[in-house]
Structure formats: C-alpha cells, structure tokens
Amino acid sequence: MKNIGSYPNLRMRRNRKADWVRRLVSEHNLSTNDLILPLFVKEGYQKKEEIKSMPNIFRYSIDELTRVVEKACKLKIPLITLFPYSEIKKKDSKGKEALNKNNLICRALRSLKKEFKNDIGIMCDVALDPYTIHGHDGVLKNSKIDNDLTIEILIKQSLLQAQMQCDIIAPSDMMDGRIGEIRKALDKKGYEDTQIVSYAVKYASNFYGPFRDAIGSEKSLKGDKKTYQMDFRNSSEALREVALDVKEGADIIMVKPGLPYLDIIRTVKDNFKIPIFSYQVSGEYSLIKNGIKKKLIGEDAILESLISLKRAGSNAIVSYFALEVASQIK
Ligand code: PBG
Prior knowledge:
By secondary structure, this protein is of the alpha/beta class. It is built from eleven helices and twelve strands. Helix content is about 35%, strand content about 20%.
C-alpha cells in the first residue's frame, strides 16, 4: 500500500465518527440471501421438541416443520437443509433406513416440495450417521469404515433424494471419490439439474457435539471420525480435497466448521473460483448462544461471527441463527 498518508493529516477515526458513516463505508454486510437454515425433523404430529444442548433449537414433526419453512420463505431465506432424528429401532449396521422411500427425510421432502415448490431450495445431507447403530457416516467392514461399500449406498441415497425432488444433494461423509460417482449416477438417471454441494473440507471437529445429540447419534457413536474427516492440524490438504471434488463435479464447496477455520475458507476462496458455503456448526452455536444468555458476551456476537465468515470468503452460511438473524435484518 503506497501513499496512504499519515497522522495528523490522516485520521482513521474520522470515518468511524458516527453510525451513518460506518454504515456508508462498511465493506461486508449480511443479507438474508447469505443464510441457510438447518432443520431437524422427527416423527409424529404437532411435535416441537427443544434440543437439550442447543437452546431455542427444536426438532419438528413434518406438519410443524412446514410452518417453520413458511416463515423462512417469508423472510426470503433461500435454502434450508434437513436432518432426521431417526428412531433407534430404525437404525442398523448398514443404515438401510437411508434407502427407505418413506423415511422421515423423503416424507418431509415430498410434503415441503408440494407446498412450497421452488419458493425455497431444499438441501439434504448424504451420509449414513443418522441411520447407523454405530453412528458412523459409512459402513464397517473388518471394523474399518469401508470407503467403496459406503459409496454404493450413498449413490442410492442420493438418487432417492433426487427422486423426491431434493434440490441440492450434500454428501457430508468424506468418503474418497463419492462426488464423481454420485454425479455420474444422477446424470445417468436424468437428474442432471440436481446440484451437489460437497462437504469437501470437513474436519474431525470437537464442535459437532450438540448436533449428534440433535440427531440422536451421540450415545451410539463408537470411537471418532478421524479416519475419514480431516485432521485439524492441516490446511494444504484442504486444497487437495477441494481440487478433487471440483474435478469430480461439485457445484459448491462446503467448509466445516466455520469460525475455527476462517483461514481455510479464505485459502479455498483465493485458489478456486467456485461458490463456498461455510457451516457454523452446533458447538459454535451453543457456545455463542449460552454466552449471550449468561451475558458473558454481547448479542451482536451473532452478527460478528456471521460477518467474519463472509469476510473470509463464504458466499452463504449454514447457521442455526438463520431464522433469528433473518427476522432481525428484516
Ligand atoms: C454428519 C454430519 C455432522 C454434522 C452435519 N452432518 C456431524 C458429524 O460429522 O458427526 C454436524 C453439524 C453440526 O455440528 O451442526 N454427516
């Protein structure tokens, strides 16, 4: 930077002297277009159940879910992402409930698409963890998560969701090669318009705790996910992951979690000209939410955290604060 001037001619504080000028020179802003709303679905009718580890976040039965999605539409949130709370009795070692065309997600998709058509986009996770008894995203063979066997199931799960009119398929399982295989299968069956958001950069993170509670996999999870999710000590590896998934046909890249990985979002942004979503995960949500409740941090911490994700280079952010923030912006 040349000729930036110097004190006392230059006083940086002049452009901060009042709210109106701060608004005028602000470099990054948050709009409802930047928000993706994650929602948890459960069985039943007129059910709305708060998740213990996530204050003010609920699991909804499909009828209740419809009302929340209506609110999201009105607030102009462009996309929701659905996660099922699967009953224990429906879980097994292969996660076969994932392929049941009447599972929670399929029923929710049919009902939401009928009601809202293209007024809002719907994204669904492709992974087996809500359905496996051991809580892993894939299937075990000789006590290892078997990559290629898992892909075979993920392909079927993707096709089923596409058939149910899911707009965006989001493989979050971190198996090698699944984006290419899923793309190929979707195209072959005529779903060439179904987008793929690849969770290309997903870390084996300590911040997923409350989510596992939300989908009921926390008690069942055996061990950890370090043989497939990324090591948090790595950053160059993220670029290799993204390069592969871009080549395999990903339309959008997800970086997850959010706040501890701002550097990764920026690096991906600088190296690839592809849209980036980031995921402010459940642990980040609960930390901030509880901090505000206890008055340890200010309420604007929510906005600060979301704008930092934008500043780092995210096009949009999956956040449990989406509804709250969208109402505020409105
Ligand atoms: C797994 C999945 C996880 C999340 C979304 N999909 C957790 C995990 O990998 O165990 C976490 C989201 C969050 O913490 O908010 N397919």
